[in-house]
Structure formats: C-alpha cells, structure tokens
What we know:
Radius of gyration: 33 Å
Shape: rod-shaped
Largest sheet: 6 strands, antiparallel
Oligomer: single chain
Number of helices: 12
Low-confidence stretches: none
Number of domains: 2
Distance between the termini: 88 Å
Number of strands: 10
Amino acid sequence: MPRLHTTYYDGRSPKAWPVTAELQGQTLVIEGEGQEHRVPLAQVRWPERQRYGARLCYLPGGGLLCHENGPEWDAWAQASGRREPWVVKWMQSWRAAVLAGLACLAFVGATWVWGIPWASQAVVAVVPESVERHLGASALSSIERTMLKPSSLPAAEQEAIRQRFSKAVAAAYPEGKAPAYELHFRSADKAGLGPNAFALPGGHMVLTDELAELLKDQPDAITGVLAHELGHVRHRHGLRMVVQTSLLASLISVVVGDVSSLLATVPAVLTEQAYSREAERESDQESVDILRKAGISPSVMVVFFERIEAWRKKQAGGEGLELPIALSSHPSDEERVNFFKNAK
C-alpha cells in the first residue's frame, strides 16, 4: 500500500510532527519521529473530497492529520482502496446536485399542496379549545393595539345587532349545539381597514363600526356577514391557518435554515393571509344555512357585496381596492354574489 508523507498533530500541543500514513487492512498506521499510532478505520473521521483546500483527518483522542495538498491526499486515499461515501460522489456531481434540488422542490410542493393541509387538520383535531381561546385572545389583543380602537357605535345599536344575530343563531342550531363565540365591536379607521369583519381562533368575532354604518339600513345583511364569520369559528379555520403556517415554517426551516419567533407573527398571519377557497365556501354555506333557518333570504348578502364594491371604488378613486383581513382574498365577488343570489 502507498505511503503518504503528511503532518500529525497530537491534540495536546501545537507542534507539527512529520509522519507517514499507510492503510494496512482495517487499520491506519501513522509513523514518524517519536510517533507510532495504529488506529482502527472505524474510529477515523475522513475528510470529504473537495476541489480546493487542505484535508483534515480526525483521529480519536483529539489528534489529526493535516495535509495541505488536497489532490495528493485524494489520490493516496484512492490508491489505498479507500471508498468514499456515495453522498460525497453526489455532492461532487452538478447533475446530481440539480436532481437533488428538483427533488427537494417537488417534495416541498407536494407537502404544501397535500401534506400540510392533511397534517393541519389532524393537529387541529387534538388542540384543546382552551388553547385555541388563549391564542385568539392574544391575537385580538395584538391587533387591537396596532389596527383597531374602541367602538363609537351607540350601545343601543350594538345591542340590536347582537340580539338579531343571537336570534338567528338560536334558530339555526339545536339548543346547546351552536359554536361558542364572542362578538366585539371596534373602530378601524386608524388602520384604514374600513367596513370589515373577521373571526379569530377561539370564537372571537370582530365587527367594525364602518361596516355597521355601511349596512345600517340592512340589518339582515349584517346578520349574514356575522353568520359567515361564525362559519370560520365553527370549522376552526383561523386555528387551521395558524397551524398550516407553523408547519410550513417548520418545513422551510428544515430545507433552508432556521425560522424563529413564529408565535410572534400569529396576528400578522391571521390578518394578512387568506383563507383557502374551500374554507370560504364552507363559511358562505354556513351563512346561507343560518339565514334560511332564521327566515331570512340569503340574497340579502347581494346588497353587502354591492356596497362593499362601491366603497372600494370610492376609496381607490374609481378603481377596485382590496380589503385586508376578512374581506380580502375570498373567492371572487362575482362567484359569491351568484352563490347567495341562487341560494333560495
């Protein structure tokens, strides 16, 4: 077997020892002035073959071999019968690297499209309601500090909306079967949210003064909007969205590095990310079911969409405008209008 003239460090002093290295069966033999070591190959941490740089071969006890001429080391290792792992061979091949990258992208895509939604449903099913309520309360507190302010809607108007919606919910669900919810009235003028409504995990539902004013003469439409948000509560869409985002962040951290402080972004997730089209259709169906059982025609929601569209154009100077939170990123207004119009 060929011998390699190299340098040995014992791990206890900075002195460099000139030695020869040789493979004898399953043993690495190191010899030189004042040095003689026989190390089982199973205890040797071999350097990976690279195009540039020195080779560092780590030995038990803190010692190491340092060889400045990388190609010379690689040639010696190959001539000595040292087989490098297949992973190293793949790392040195640009074709293999491209193939691995494409496979990684395919895995991430498949996980996002199919794996994460399935996993999120499984996780949501086992999350206690107390945890969900705490998450929603924390998110509401954060949103109130940054995007909302106390409602200026008269107490009598608030109570009338509460009573009308409560009556519709009681008609739609058998006693004790309605989803638990808490309706909050807030003003959104400082954040520019305008007429809006949204649901947070744990049953927290927010209706802005601006939406109440926009539909002041259409109380049934307000009930329909709240019924839609109750659909999000019932199906736990907000929690599912947070779980999906958490799972995606975990997946990204595995692929490209660490993603930190996810919980601190929960309010942003809930206000900026869109529910899936499936979730929105589920909530629209919930609104239709509640309105029907309350003796209200679902077509009252058409007025809501007409006025929201008019408000958008007014704010944007005649052009369309996307609303954040609940009313943005839903299925198209045309699709939803037709759905409510045709729901007899």
